User: Which sequence fits this backbone?
DNA sequence: ACCAAAATCCCCCTCTAAGGGTGATGCAGC
DNA sequence: GCTGCATCACCCTTAGAGGGGGATTTTGGT
């Protein structure tokens, strides 16, 4: 582990032009040092531990093992390294998969060099840097549909169904009769035009009702 | 709707000292205009529409109807207004509830005046409504336990259980036999030391296995 | 090349829980 | 005075969950 104040950086990116471009732009920044660059995860895995990076810039679209799969393996051999995802795509699933697998931040490739440099410093400070569009997407993913057809009680019960609870467990938890729970579930099914728990949850999550 | 470049602001906050303090600090900022202030949601709801604010600073700890419950009601009568949450607490649940109910940003009360002013301008630009510490919390909330005892397949099946799917639905979806699904579920139960879907989901979500 | 873990499939059993149908009642808001 | 909401009741059938006991093959790591 290095102890001075230089931030050691590794770049894993298959496109040579982009890779060298980033290495150059970051390398000339004071306090930032690009230790090494790799064109694939397979190449990186052999020696990246010796590079001892504090921040890894990781491309998602890699040949062979892709970035998402590479993420937990990288974190395993370098637990304290911060991984910043670089990608041209900004699909919701990709973002959440990356964050779930240990990414510390998420940058789209149209980010300016200064934004990337700023993010590297930020993540080192314990922050969670995200491009504006990513942050907006994450916030949006939390937002519930304010025009839900479901009542308060129905929403509450559907949430418990989402936790895998049975009718009787729900009844106990809400201090109401088993038959009342049944009634609510029937009404939920009617409103959502479904006839099973799985379909109700699918529809509800799709429409951000829960 | 006003068309000039002044940002119209409403403050809903029960503590008179804080309320007036914010109103004063924001009011003297060029381009920001505090149209009105209220001590409770009940007082605000009557006339806030006439105030036509673009940004609402909303306290969470309000007497009567609290901020979280007030949020969707505010958004209903003022759909285009940005709501910034003000609170002394920064619990994960509170933040996610606020975002789920339509908050655009989240500020703790120890934020400096300049930070608040900056946030108001930022949110008005439609951009980065998340402060660094909120982003960090969000990233953390997505992160899965890298030392999960569950195998890839088991995790996948537990996710489908989380969607409320039955054994046979899971079998069809994964192109495997119903009995194979059963085996996996048995192994999941053994590893997590549970004996029901609800308990498995509870344990898994608690330990960020799914 | 080997061992362990993972993934696949098979049959026994019980019985809870889910879902459809058709009601009723009291209460609140408009 | 209607409508939505929340509450509870009893009819019915069948699907599904969970416990127990196996087996085989494929895969990953050293």
Assistant:
């Amino acid at each position: 582990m290095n102890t001075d104040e230089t931030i050691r950086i590794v770049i894993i990116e298959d496109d040579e032009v982009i890779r060298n471009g980033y290495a150059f732009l970051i390398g000339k920044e004071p306090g930032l040092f690009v230790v090494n660059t790799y064109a694939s995860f397979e190449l990186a895995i052999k020696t990246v531990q010796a590079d001892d990076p504090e921040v890894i810039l990781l491309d998602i679209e890699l040949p062979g093992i892709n970035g998402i799969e590479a993420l937990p393996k990288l974190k395993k051999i370098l637990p304290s390294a911060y991984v910043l995802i670089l990608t041209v795509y900004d699909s919701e699933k990709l973002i959440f998969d990356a964050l779930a697998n240990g990414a510390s931040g998420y940058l789209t490739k149209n980010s300016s060099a200064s934004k990337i440099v700023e993010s590297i410093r930020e993540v080192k400070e314990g922050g969670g840097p995200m491009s504006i569009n990513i942050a907006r997407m994450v916030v949006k993913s939390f937002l519930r549909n304010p025009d839900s057809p479901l009542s308060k009680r129905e929403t509450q019960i559907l949430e418990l169904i989402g936790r895998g609870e049975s009718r009787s467990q729900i009844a106990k938890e809400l201090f109401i009769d088993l038959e009342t729970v049944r009634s609510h579930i029937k009404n939920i099914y009617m409103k959502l035009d479904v006839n099973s728990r799985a379909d109700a949850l699918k529809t509800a999550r799709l429409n951000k009702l829960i």
